[in-house]
Amino acid sequence: MAVTFPHSTFSPPSVSLPRSSLPRFSPRCSSSASIPMDPQNGGRRAFMEFPYVSAPHRDLMVELVSTVENRLDPYLLPCKLPPDVQYYENQSGTAHAALQVRSGIQSSQIDFILGSWLHCELPTGAALNITSLSGYLNSSTDAPNFLIELIQSSPTSLVLILDLPPRKDLVLHDNYLKTFYEDTQMDTHRQNLSSLPEAKPYFSSSLYIRSVVSPTAILVRVEADAGKNTCLEEIVRDHVAPVAKEVLRVWLDVCACGERVVGEAERECLAKRDGIIKRKTIEIDLASSFPRLFGQEVANRVLEALQEVFIA
């Protein structure tokens, strides 16, 4: 997950990047950031703005969120987070974030859908922008979850994390591997993006994180040519977006809306494993970074709301 949100369990690469190498985003890439984000009226509007990122990046996130909601809307409850959790910022105004969580109705396979964006101005003058969307399923199915996270620390650098994280051991359950990863040809998407000249593998510093992703997970860092201002935007539009949309389509068709037979004993194992993943997400991603970014009062407020969702 990102620096402040429990979508994935990934820490942002900005922690390990040399800060002196992170230039500030140009005004062109954050033209929508001038729109006021009132905590009382922000909510979904603030979330769907996806400010501070380029137009192709924003268009991709809006389309992904809209696709999920259009397909799953009959099975989702409205977002019930307090307004000051749906949008919040720190006292100095250097960190802003929006968060939306829609839980599934009791009869559905959906646990919850979680989306967010984060903008943080760093003391060096650099800016960190993270957009995320995750789909969590409940123990009535053993199908994989969905995760996408785009982490941008400069106009020419982007980390993409895109995966269907497995919820069963792939060695013990080879049919699971075949159904969700081989038959769906998930690895072709990883190969296509990895073959781009601008793409390099991205490795999380956490061994735990590396252990929970699938064999077909896409974890790449895209480094565009600094002399071509639109290069990164073109890569997002022409390469990242089509792959992300296709992976989401597979998740919706095969996982979220697919039928799986899960016995009672297996449900208990799934619920236990899912619970561990959620707790680890909060422990790894939020415990230290959240108060530093937003202050203890804001951090406590948002963490309490998220814990209610994760533990429910």
List the topology elements.
Elements: H1 43-49, H2 55-72, H3 83-86, E1 87-89, E2 95-103, E3 110-121, E4 127-137, E5 146-154, E6 157-163, H4 174-182, H5 186-194, E7 199-201, H6 207-212, E8 218-223, H7 231-256, H8 264-285, H9 289-294, H10 296-311
Antiparallel strand pairs: 1-2, 2-3, 3-4, 4-5, 5-6, 6-8, 7-8
Helix pairs in contact: 2-7, 5-7, 8-10
Please summarize what this structure is:
This protein has 312 residues and is an alpha+beta fold. The protein has helices spanning 43-49, 55-72, 83-86, 174-182, 186-194, 207-212, 231-256, 264-285, 289-294, 296-311; strands at residues 87-89, 95-103, 110-121, 127-137, 146-154, 157-163, 199-201, 218-223.
Explain what the structure shows:
Helix 2 runs parallel beside helix 7 and helix 5 runs antiparallel to helix 7. The chain is 39% helix and 19% strand. The protein is of the alpha+beta class. The chain has an eight-stranded antiparallel sheet.
Q: How would you classify the quaternary structure?
A: single chain
Helix content: 25-40%
- Based on secondary structure, the structural category is alpha+beta
Strands of the largest sheet, in order across it? Answer: 1-2-3-4-5-6-8-7
Number of DSSP strand runs: 8
Order of helices and strands: HHHEEEEEEHHEHEHHHH
The backbone outline, from C-alpha atoms, is: globular
Low-confidence stretches: 1-41
Cα radius of gyration in angstroms: 18 Å
